[in-house]
Amino acid sequence: MSEITRYRGDTYPIYVTVQNENSLPIDITDWTLVMSLCDVSAPTVSDYIWQVTASVSEPENGAAFFDFSDEQMDLVGSFYYDIQIVDQANKKRTIKKGTLKFLQDINKD
Cα-flanking dihedrals φ and ψ of residue 60, to 5°? Predict the structure, then answer.
C-alpha cells in the first residue's frame, strides 16, 4: 500500500506511470484509469466518496494524471483509494492502492 498526503483543498494533480513487472513503462493507448476514494478499506458496495478518470498525457510512456475539483479535495482525515486500469481488451486490473490522507490547513480559500 502507498500513502499519499495532501492538505485540504490542494487540487494539484496526482501523476502515475503504468509499468510492467520490470518497472518499464507500458503503452496505455486507449486505456482508462480510474481512481476511487472510499472511507472504508474493503467496501462491499460501490459507496465511493468520489471517482476520477485520469487524463492520459503520454500513452506510449504509460503516463497519466488525475485532476481534482475543489469539492473533491475539501476533505480532512484518512481515506482509502485504489487505481484501476481497463485495457484495450476490456480487462481490469488494480495497479495501486493505499491511503490518501488530508491534513487540515490554515487557508480556507
Answer: -65, -20
CATH fold for domain 2-103 = Immunoglobulin-like (2.60.40)
Residue matched to cell numbers 520490470: 22
pLDDT in tens, the chain (109 residues): 689 999 999 999 999 999 999 999 999 999 999 999 999 998 888 889 999 999 999 999 999 999 999 999 999 999 999 999 999 999 999 999 999 999 998 876 6
**Sequential DSSP letters for 40-60:** SSS-SS---SEEEEPEEEEGG
Cell 492538505, residue located? 7
Q: Which amino acid is at 81?
A: Y
C-alpha to C-alpha distance for 106 and 77, rounded to whole angstroms: 15
Q: pTM to 2 decimals? A: 0.91
**Which has the closest alpha carbon to 101: 1, 2, 5, 29?**
5
Residues 6+ apart with CB under 8 A from 67: 11, 13, 52, 55
